[in-house]
Amino acid sequence: MNQPDTILTSIDARGVATVTLNNPEKHNAFDDVLIQALTQSFEDIANNDDVRVMILASNGRSFSAGADLGWMKRMVNYSYDDNLQDARELARMLKTLAEMPQPTIAAVQGATFGGAVGLVSCCDMALASERAVFSLSEVRIGLIPATIGPYVVRAIGERASRRYFMTGERFRANTAYHLGLVADVVAPEDLDSAVQNEVNSILACGPQAVRAAKNLVNEIGGKAIDDKLIEYTCERIATIRASDEAQEGLGAFLEKRSPAWLQNEDDTNV
Q1: In terms of domains, do 101 and 85 share one?
Q2: What is the number of domains present in the chain?
């Protein structure tokens, strides 16, 4: 499908993909067309072995105000089956983002409402401007944050989710930080550089190791620490140690040189 003007996708020479919501006049609100476009972009990036990290950003004052008003007006006349299909499309987009093999970083500024909180929750990490404000606002219009719910609960925990799911109240970036929704809060003018610092940290690491580390979290998160899980982790490190990338990394460390995946010859701290 052709990508609408409301989304921009780019990949630079470093293998850094950036997906940008680009409808500032409507505060980057999303509808069914944008959801399909995001799904396609996320799938394309996930299947691109040259991409090492993805940034999810937006243009304008808001990250995203959630659902587009025109889309909401159409929903009024939807049947149950229409609503179910609509929800499944959104769920597919969120799942694609959450399961992307590359690390994902959300750069959050301004209003981040409803489904946009789900987008942030699906990313591996998020950095927020001091001006960012969040709300799981669905209950204010008689709805619930159902499709995004699993990702939000995973990001901020069940206790906090109960409060913000049921009240729809707004909370600032510092609260989002304390909840674990965002990793850091910075001045608006420092957001881009803060994101690039995280990108550079990822690019300094072994590309396959980063993917394997993300997969490890997915595999062990929330599971009981029993003999089966312990054996799984032993098998994972045994496999990784024998890989070409690990051999290069260990060799570079012992020989006090930069590993092959770095683009410069500067010494790095491990």
Answers
A1: yes
A2: 2
β-pairing, 133-135 vs 170-172, is antiparallel
Specify whether 189 is located in the same domain as 128: yes
Is 270 within a domain? Answer: no
pLDDT tier for residue 240 given thresholds of 50, 70 and 90:
very high
- The number of residues making up the chain comes to 270
Q: Which domain holds residue 22?
A: 7-202
- Judged on CB neighbours under 10 Å (0-12, 13-18, 19+), 153 is middle
Q: Which residue has the higher pLDDT, 192 or 73?
A: 192
Beta bridge partners of 150: none
Asked whether residue 132 falls in the same domain as residue 58, the answer is yes
Both 24 and 137 in one domain: the answer is yes
Contacts of residues 145-150 at CB distance under 8 Å and 24 or more positions apart, as own/partner, are 145/114, 145/115, 145/117, 145/118, 146/87, 147/87, 147/90, 147/91, 147/94, 147/115, 147/118, 148/90, 148/94, 148/114, 148/115, 148/117, 148/118, 148/121
pLDDT of residue 4: 78
